[in-house]
Design a protein that fits this description.
alpha/beta; TIM Barrel; eight-stranded parallel beta sheet; two-stranded antiparallel sheet; 17 helices; about 45% helix; binds ligand FNR
């Protein structure tokens, strides 16, 4: 199949990946209601079709934190992307660089930060969780600074891990004995392409940035044990001062879904926030990003840069998110599917598709520059009836 969209890449990913890995990427928390709402609510955003406005030159480029981006998109952090394709984070970072947009490396990547930075010329972003071992956090922040990372995404929506039924059913979580291993091995053997690309040629199978604490031979069981024990649920806003003081680059708090929390982030002196529910992977039943974003952007948009993610599956969705109030949009599963379906070339292709779709959407809504996109280009969006009485 020749992919023409993110959902085509999802189908390719489904064919290529062993089931426990596909479910890890594709799945969400509990009954996956929020995961579905993220996509459905964004698609419910209706744009105003505008005509006869000279759209012969459409420019999707933008500026974020003083950097020029070819389009208002960044590849958001995806943990263990190295399971999706051989040296996955490295491939994705190269595709992002070729497209002129930032790549954000997860704390829990398969490739280490230095492996990724040595594969690209442009600076990358780094994502960090609040880890109990503050010394290790300091080391990671120092490494990020030394490796030239410009922007830190500090993820705050994982004080505890969401319960993911799919991971339990397909055998990723909670089964590290012989039974669990053989179940995963059996699923892997049904996907020889993946075994060849990742299982054999993706070696060495490292746990990237965690190697200093887990050792070079650590396996999945050690990794999940570390996740369980290392995230710090006792953290409060006051401790974020530690991050602000330690990190001198741009600081973006990722995982805000409430206007009051957004105001706290502004007080802390963050440069930006990512409005996000972690792709519906944490608390099922919370609102979609599309629903939460307008109120948050109105509350703090003049004080910090508002980014957003969740449910973005096309260039049209990017325009919708911008209309709702985001300045730049992070891709999550969309790029993960493309990486699994087509490696670096797949991610590069997906980004070209997104850019073309954005150009089309801009032309048909009658705008030629990103800074012309605002809520006035929307006809309807989820929650509008509650927010504003319609006079027409
Ligand atoms: C994530 N996400 C994530 N976020 C983060 O801050 N650090 C991480 O390590 C990860 N890891 C991760 C793995 C996988 C497989 C997924 C699907 C997601 C969340 C991610 O950055 C983003 O917020 C969501 O993926 C956005 O939702 P969509 O676009 O995937 O619907």
């Amino acid at each position: 199949m020749k992919a023409a969209s993110a959902s085509d890449y999802r189908e390719l990913a489904k064919r290529r990946l062993p089931r426990f890995i596909f479910d890890y990427v594709d799945g969400g928390a509990f009954d996956e209601v929020t995961l579905e709402r993220n996509v459905a609510d964004l698609q419910d955003v209706q744009l105003r079709q505008r005509i006869l406005r000279d759209v012969s030159h459409v420019d999707p480029s933008t500026t974020l934190f003083g950097q020029k981006l070819a389009m208002p998109i960044a590849l958001g952090p995806i943990g263990m992307a190295g399971l999706l394709a051989r040296r996955g984070e490295r491939q994705a970072a190269r595709a992002a660089q070729a497209a002129g947009i930032p790549f954000c490396l997860s704390t829990v990547s398969a490739c280490s930060m230095t492996e990724v930075t040595s594969a690209v010329d442009k600076p990358i972003w780094f994502q960090l969780y609040m880890i109990r071992d503050r010394g290790f956090m300091r080391d990671l922040l120092a490494l990020a600074r030394d490796q030239g990372c410009t922007t830190l995404l500090f993820t705050v929506d994982v004080p505890v891990a969401g319960s993911r039924y799919r991971d339990q059913r397909s055998g990723l979580s909670g089964a590290f004995g012989i039974k669990g291993k053989s179940r995963r091995l059996f699923q892997a053997l049904r996907h020889p392409g993946w075994v060849w690309d990742v299982g054999l040629n993706g070696r060495p199978h490292t746990l990237g940035n965690l190697t200093p604490v887990l050792g070079p031979k650590a396996g999945m069981g050690d990794f999940f044990g570390w996740l369980r024990d290392s995230f710090d649920p006792s953290v409060t806003w006051s401790e974020l001062d530690f991050i602000r003081e330690t990190w001198k680059g741009d600081l973006v708090i990722k995982g805000i879904l409430d206007a009051e929390d957004a105001r706290e982030a502004a007080k802390l002196g963050a440069n930006g926030i990512v409005v996000s529910n972690h792709g519906g992977r944490q608390l099922d039943g919370v609102p979609s990003t599309a629903r939460a974003l307008p109120e948050i952007a109105d509350a703090v948009g003049d004080r910090l840069t508002v980014l957003a993610d969740c449910g973005v599956r096309s260039g049209l969705d990017v325009i919708r998110m911008l209309g709702l109030g985001a300045k730049t949009v992070l891709l999550g599963r969309a790029w993960a599917y493309a990486l699994a379906g087509g490696g670096e070339a797949g991610v590069a292709h997906l980004l070209r598709l997104f850019e073309a779709e954005m150009r089309t959407a801009m032309a048909l809504t009658g705008v030629t520059r990103i800074d012309q996109i605002g809520r006035d280009m929307l006809a309807r969006w989820p929650g509008l009836d509650q927010n504003r009485p319609q006079t027409r």
